[in-house]
Specification:
By secondary structure, the chain is of the alpha/beta class. The protein has 6 helices and 7 strands; from the N terminus they run E-H-E-H-E-H-E-H-E-H-E-H-E. It has a 7-stranded parallel sheet, sandwiched between helices. Helix 3 runs parallel beside helix 4. The two termini are about 30 Å apart. Bound molecules: NADP nicotinamide-adenine-dinucleotide phosphate (NAP). NADP nicotinamide-adenine-dinucleotide phosphate binds next to helix 1 and helix 4.
Length: about 240
């Protein structure tokens, strides 16, 4: 089974893991629609350079109307959506006793509410055609607790709850899984929301390096292809051994 000619929606695609996923799918001949809070022109150009094709749109995944507008514009009947690869997300590192409720609300809104909104509309489309692959993004922090990251950890555990529930609700027609990356070398690790010593932590990883976004994209594309046909309800660790559940 080739995935060429299929359609995909990739969120968080202006950079990082989302961009790598969009490029990987497009390189296999998938027609991708890419969305982000900001312009995705660089990703569109990179895909064109690969000989691929991409539409782009602006979307705040935490906003219901913004999400619905993307689906109405790009996937309205007779539109077809074969794959969702949902990568948009944010992180904050802060000790609990210094964490304002607004920061908790923001992380839950983007990471968990955003996943619910995007996933619900994608599954609505896939239900009409009776097939599809949903690939969400949790984290290695979707498996375990971590000091100073509790809102992020809670949001990524929540994503795993959606994965396990939707995988059962939409079986056998549609598979639902989550990528669970360990530390990946993207702008997220250098944001001011993270403590500056993050880069020293790669010493804790058995494979002694951070992952690359392309290594996560390989797994997303695998899950959309023939090899992913019998995988559902799983959080797939791509983490250099940082977690061994
Ligand atoms: P990134 O480089 O920061 O990319 C995240 C993208 O999501 C950005 O383009 C960002 O847009 C977008 N975004 C943020 N809020 C959004 C919203 N409300 N609506 C739409 N788009 C929004 O991060 P990344 O490393 O590629 O992370 C991708 C996913 O992997 C996230 O879910 C993250 O939690 C997860 N993850 C990352 C790592 C890691 O080590 N990097 C590890 C485990 C899991 P702006 O540029 O406008 O902010």
């Amino acid at each position: 089974m080739s995935i060429a000619g299929s359609t995909a929606l990739v969120t968080g695609a202006s950079r990082g893991i989302g961009r790598a996923c969009a490029e990987s799918l497009a390189s296999k001949g998938v027609k991708v629609t890419i969305v982000d809070l900001l312009d995705c022109s660089e990703t569109v150009e990179a895909i064109a350079a690969l000989g691929g094709k991409a539409d782009q749109g602006i979307c705040d995944v935490a906003d219901e109307q913004s999400v619905k507008a993307v689906f109405e514009r790009h996937f309205a009947v007779p539109g077809r959506l074969d794959f969702l690869v949902h990568c948009a997300g944010i992180i904050h590192e802060r000790p609990l006793l210094e964490t304002p409720i607004d920061e908790f609300d923001k992380v839950i809104a983007v990471n968990l509410r955003g996943t619910f909104l995007i996933g619900r509309e994608a599954l609505r489309c896939m239900s009409t055609t009776g097939s599809g692959r949903v690939v969400l993004t949790s984290s290695d922090m979707g498996y375990y607790g971590r000091e100073t990251f509790s809102p992020y950890v809670a949001s990524k555990h929540g994503v795993m709850g959606l994965v396990r529930s939707w995988a059962k609700e939409f079986a056998p027609a549609i598979t639902v899984n989550a990528l669970c990356p360990g530390p990946i070398d993207t702008a997220m690790l250098d944001t001011q929301n993270m403590s500056p010593d993050w880069r020293e932590r790669e010493l804790d990883i058995p494979l002694r390096r951070f992952g690359q976004p392309e290594e996560i994209a390989e797994m997303a594309t695998f899950l959309c292809g023939e090899g992913g046909a019998y995988i559902t309800g799983q959080g797939i660790g791509i983490n250099g051994g940082s977690v061994m559940p």
